[in-house]
Amino acid sequence: MTIIRTTERQQKENSKLMQDFSHAFVSNDLSLLQELLHKDGIFMGRFTKAKALSYFHKLFFGEEGIADFQHAYFNKGIALDSSCGAEVLEIRCDKKIHFRKNGLPYFAAFGEMQDIFSDERVFRFTFEFLDGQISAIRIPKKHIEKVDRLVMEN
Description:
The chain is an alpha+beta fold. It is 29% helix and 27% strand. The protein has one domain: Roll (Nuclear Transport Factor 2, Chain: A). The chain has helices spanning 8-26, 30-36, 49-61, 148-153; strands spanning 37-43, 71-79, 87-94, 121-130, 133-138, 143-144. Strand 4 (121-130) and strand 5 (133-138) form a beta hairpin. The longest helix is centred in the first third of the chain and has 19 residues, at 8-26. The relative contact order is 0.18.
């Protein structure tokens, strides 16, 4: 296994790309996604850039699309699958805000199951970067919010 080290500058650029992706995702902005995705990238393990844009179009505007969802928030975690250690971006979208009994809004923690009694949709992505663009997007199979417990148990 090769360990790839990134400079502080690359880390900032990659964080900005992830932030731009999250904004494009919740605003259903396909033109921004087109700018962010690398022309030679592989997305969701099998899609070219054109197919990935088609996938996101269907996700946003299809019959079960999220274009009319008004509320979204983000969590971050860590992948434990084939891209172990990669940062996971979790995007939780819903048609309305849910409140606790004390009147404060409820925000699910990273990794919590999707609320089946609401319209909530949960998406999790990991990214790879090349030449200032996103060169790969994956859906992680295994993830965790923090590694603290793993470190303690090791």
